[in-house]
Amino acid sequence: MPRTMVTVSVEMSDAEFDRHVDAALDAVPPELASLVRNCVVLVEPEPPIGSPGLLGLYEGIPLTERDSWYGGILPDRILIFRGPLMRHCRDEAELIDEIHITVVHEIAHHFGIDDARLHELGYA
After folding, report:
1. Which of its termini does the chain have fewer beta carbons within 10 Å around, N or C?
2. What is the mean pLDDT of the chain?
3. 20: exposed, middle or buried (C-beta count within 10 Å: 0-12, 13-18, 19+)?
4. Calpha distance 118→111 (Å, rounded)
């Protein structure tokens, strides 16, 4: 999920950032969280080279594309990028909100929801 950067940066320890990612995951309604299959969420310091504004990334096979052939496959990955998120936000409250939005955005991709629909829902 690429975003435009702001010039102010928020500082937050790695442990505190991770706690906010965990809180965002805990906020996913249980009826949806129980449907997440074969997926891990990881926090990385920075996105891949060439994607400096990327806040999060879903890598995998969405649930909507899995069929009877699906099995024995490494887990999907949701990557949350600490550096761009902290540089994107003006204050801690905005950072916490943006972490939540990014986590929900990437989980939605796991469910097969595309960016156009996420934009309509306010998560893009």
Report:
1. C
2. 89
3. buried
4. 12
Residue corresponding to tokens 């490494």: 74
pLDDT of residue 66: 85
For residue 107 the two structure tokens come to 């989980």
Angle between helices 14-26 and 92-110 (to 10 degrees): 50
pLDDT tens column, 55-88: 999 999 898 888 888 888 889 999 999 999 999 9
Strand partners, 66: none
Calpha distance 28→67 (Å, rounded): 25
Judge whether residue 123 has pLDDT over 80.
Answer: no
pLDDT of residue 41: 97
CA gap 118, 108 in Å, rounded: 8
Contact 1, 102 (CB under 8 A): yes
Q: How far apart are CA 11 and CA 16, in angstroms?
A: 10
3-state SS assignment for residue 41: strand
Contact 78, 41 (CB under 8 A): yes
